[in-house]
Automatic annotation (TrEMBL):
It comes from the Bacteria. This is 4Fe-4S binding protein. InterPro entries: 4Fe4S_Fe-S-bd (IPR017896), 4Fe4S_Fe_S_CS (IPR017900), Electron_Trans/Redox (IPR051684). The chain crosses the membrane at residues 21-41, 47-65, 90-109, 142-162, 174-193, 232-251, 290-308, 328-347. It comes from Acanthopleuribacter pedis. Coiled coil: none annotated. One of its GO terms (cellular component) is plasma membrane.
């Protein structure tokens, strides 16, 4: 027993000893870079902002690339429960405070990020043809937001590619979210805006996730913007009414949540180290179902009221029409999806928004639950009840409960990331698309 106690005391020290020189240098670069970014916010120095951002990116890449030398390919979750940053320790809470604070500043106090806006403005002018400052001198932070978001997914995507390099499914899935974020969520919208009088359209986001996409003023703006605007409107309607049901029928909600969506892309890359922190309790499951479907109802009602008010010449809501939509945008889109959805990764897991709030995930979940061929099949005779599948399910599903009984998993919340199958040491779980009458276990 004394030998066991001694070995447990040494585990955290062994975990830190695995870092090599380049990884330590990379961590040092990230630390100094973050410090310079904080200083640049207070001093207004663009040089410090650029140096800090560069150090963060290259330091992170230096650390990440060296992880390829951690042994043979295969998922390694060694010492996670002894890691302060990955098991809700003090470092995790510090990271949560930092990320939440950054989102609050970005959304509500962007003037403090002026050095970073100045830094990326030349790229914005070249890519989109417009500056971060309008004719009245007002500054927009949203290109900076998209730029940081994209760089984060690309950098942390490299980490995912190295960590899951043994799995063809995980490699393809990671490359997919990196591609859609870089191309369809960032580059293409900005380039099209350059050649179409600033008309910006997010091709990878579908209503109701992009809640204002089918509001009256958005529809009228697209119709009045020529052929491209009309095609964008067609795509917005087609993507939710035709594309979404068809693809979800054949592939489940994973085609969007784990392969296309930018929110899912950030969760699967930046949020991947924290996926084990998702709450697996029955209470969390009940809260999840009420919250996500309530947000879906809210966005449908909001869109309906906006149209009713528009068609009746403002007689229904009057001046409250704009306030109603702005209220939804502030509470759900900014606070829930942005500040909480991302800032709480280190303490609540990587899919806080996707699990509890995303209305698009709710739509896909309903379709997947009742009308999809997708399910995760299990072989109960092979299950050894290790619990890896449940531990690393970012959506809080108790996968082991199904595996022990040999029941197929057909859950509205499952995003088909495939991690439960990847971490299973016995090959019990498999992601499959098959006839609906072969499924069992219809519990949501």
């Amino acid at each position: 027993m004394r030998h066991l106690d001694l070995s447990l005391q040494l585990i955290p020290e062994r975990a830190h000893a695995t870092l090599d020189g380049l990884q330590k240098l990379g961590l040092g670069g990230v630390s100094i870079g973050l410090l310079l970014l904080v200083v640049s916010v207070m001093s207004g120095s663009t040089v410090q902002a650029g140096t800090g951002f560069g150090l963060v990116v290259f330091g992170a890449l230096a650390y990440i690339v060296q992880t390829r030398n951690d042994g043979p390919p295969g998922i390694k979750n060694n010492f996670i429960m002894f890691s302060s940053i990955m098991s809700r320790g003090y470092l995790a809470w510090m990271a949560a405070v930092f990320m939440t604070g950054f989102y609050i500043i970005l959304y509500f106090y962007p003037q403090h990020l002026k050095p970073l806006v100045v830094l990326v403005n030349p790229l914005q002018v070249w890519l989109s043809g417009s500056s971060a400052w309008d004719a009245n001198g007002n500054m927009s932070q949203w290109f900076l937001y998209g730029f940081i978001y994209t760089v984060t997914i690309l950098v942390m995507g490299v980490r995912a590619l190295i960590k899951y390099r043994h799995s063809r499914y995980q490699i393809l899935r990671t490359l997919s979210v990196m591609f859609f974020q870089l191309a369809f969520a960032f580059t293409i919208p900005n380039v099209l805006a350059k050649f179409n009088n600033g008309l910006y359209f997010e091709w990878a986001n579908i209503w109701p996730l992009r809640y204002y996409e089918l509001f009256p003023y958005s529809v009228e703006g697209l119709i009045s913007s020529g052929g491209l605007g009309k095609f964008m409107l067609f795509w917005a309607v087609f993507s939710i009414l035709i594309l979404t049901p068809v693809l979800t029928y054949f592939f489940g909600k994973r085609w969007y949540c784990s392969w296309v969506c930018g929110c899912g892309g950030l969760a699967e890359t930046l949020g991947d180290p924290f996926r084990q922190n998702s709450d697996k309790s029955l209470r969390a499951w009940k809260v999840e179902r009420w919250m996500i479907h309530s947000v879906l109802v809210l966005v449908v009602v909001t869109t309906g009221l906006m149209w009713a008010n528009h068609l009746y010449g403002g007689e229904i809501l009057g001046t409250w029409s704009g306030r109603f939509s702005s209220g939804y945008g502030f509470l759900i889109h900014s606070i829930f999806a942005g500040v909480i959805g991302t800032g709480f990764y280190p303490v609540m897991g990587s899919r806080v928004w996707c699990r509890f709030g995303c209305p698009m995930a709710a739509v896909l979940g309903i379709l997947q639950r009742f009308f999809s061929r997708f399910r995760i099949t299990t072989n109960g005779g092979q299950c050894i009840s290790c619990g890896n599948c449940s531990t690393y399910c970012e959506m809080g599903i108790d996968v082991r409960w199904y595996a022990q009984r040999g029941e197929n998993i057909v859950r509205a919340s499952c995003v088909g990331c495939g991690m439960c199958s990847a971490v299973c040491p016995r090959g019990v779980l498999n992601l499959e698309n098959g006839p609906m009458n072969n499924r069992t276990g219809f519990q949501v």
